[in-house]
TrEMBL record:
The keyword DNA damage does not apply. Its EC number is 2.1.1.222, 2.1.1.64. It catalyses: a 3-demethylubiquinol + S-adenosyl-L-methionine = a ubiquinol + S-adenosyl-L-homocysteine + H(+); a 3-(all-trans-polyprenyl)benzene-1,2-diol + S-adenosyl-L-methionine = a 2-methoxy-6-(all-trans-polyprenyl)phenol + S-adenosyl-L-homocysteine + H(+). Pfam families: Methyltransf_23. This is Ubiquinone biosynthesis O-methyltransferase. It comes from Herbaspirillum lusitanum. The keyword Glycoprotein does not apply. InterPro entries: SAM-dependent_MTases_sf, UbiG_MeTrfase. CDD domains: AdoMet_MTases. Gene3D superfamilies: Vaccinia Virus protein VP39. It is an enzyme of class 2 (transferase).
Amino acid sequence: MNADPLELQKFSELAHHWWDPTSEFRPLHEINPLRLEWINARAPLAGRKVVDIGCGGGILAESMAAKGADVTGIDLSDKALKVADLHSMESGVQVRYEKIAAEDLALREPGQFDIVTCMEMLEHVPDPSSIVRACATLAKPGGKIFFSTLNRNPKAYLLAILGAEYLLRMLPKGTHDYAKFITPAELAQYTRQAGLDIDGFKGLSYNPLTKIYSLNQDTDVNYLVACSKPAQ
């Protein structure tokens, strides 16, 4: 299985905080409107069949469903999925959640989704290229695939680990492993090897003075990638 047991344990232990916007997951709540609108602008969600890979507690999955998408969220953390299910029942926003690996879902349901999202996950798995291939397999011809992850360079180490985890304490210490960060060139290679076309990159930055996140062209630390699966 393409998963790190320690990573699963780490996020499972925090699962009960997933929907608390003042908790360790505050950054996810704050960036979610940005990434949601970025996705929706490139692939309108209403009426689309969507799968969210590594959905965790369902913040993105539920927001896409609220936009009118038919959403499936998958993860390998039982606790996170239980939290996601409970919140979906409380909010009335319907999302199907399932504990299954991306690679296994790709074998079961190839070419079944208009949109595939995999956000803040690639830097937590042993083989990110395998996840990218699974995402490509899951998408229909002409479908859209969206990734987000962290760049690997001194600036990213300074801001994403020393800054976010140790100085500003925005994230628990140990949330990220710098060695698992992925450069845009590496991710571009993974997508090409999976047969995808890159539509564009977008940077995501945090201003510690205003405490506001924004999308821009600076991909030095956090970045997002939009891809298309060629139509047959």
